[in-house]
Amino acid sequence: MSSDLDTAQLVALAAALGWASGVRLYLVVFLTGLAGALGWVALPPGLHLLQTPLVLGASAVLAAIEFVADKVPAVNALWDGVHTVLRVPGGALLAAGVFGGDQAQWTLVAALAGGALAATSHVAKTSTTASLTTFPEPLTHTGISLVSDLSVPVMLWLAFAHPALFAVALIVVVAVMVGTTVVLFRFLRALARRLTGRTQPIRPNS
Fold it and tell me: Which of 28, 64, 127, 140 lies most in the core, judged by the most C-beta atoms within 10 Å?
């Protein structure tokens, strides 16, 4: 079955897969494969593997584990750290799969862009998670985690249904993520300096 997506949809899908992989890699794999398996959309040949029963089952289990792990701050921090080496290449591979091997130039561009978008969203997510550990109450952390969960299907749907609107949304989201990452990085650096200053021994005046 060949893909019925036009060029704009393919580009949008590659960008969506890259960006969303940095947030919820397994959920991206599951939802994309499910959409193809149920016939909601004809996936490009390079993504047909996602709709096989084995990949669907494995990604569903991992997505469920990640959903729970992301709601527990201590576990989430460890989970994000481990997945630093998985989300970026995962986003690059999924984005490249949109164009397969038939269009080598587009495949390479998609892989580079997908990896960059995955890195951007992953760094923003990890920075946010690290900052939230300073809040003792769990409601803020859970609320932001649920927003992340919801953002994945919304962005994937926009990429399929409204590529132009998705492009605008992606630009806004990436800009917000970059700005948030810079602010949180400065906050964490200042916090680390304060904590380091408090733990330094007080030297008596000579």
Answer: 28
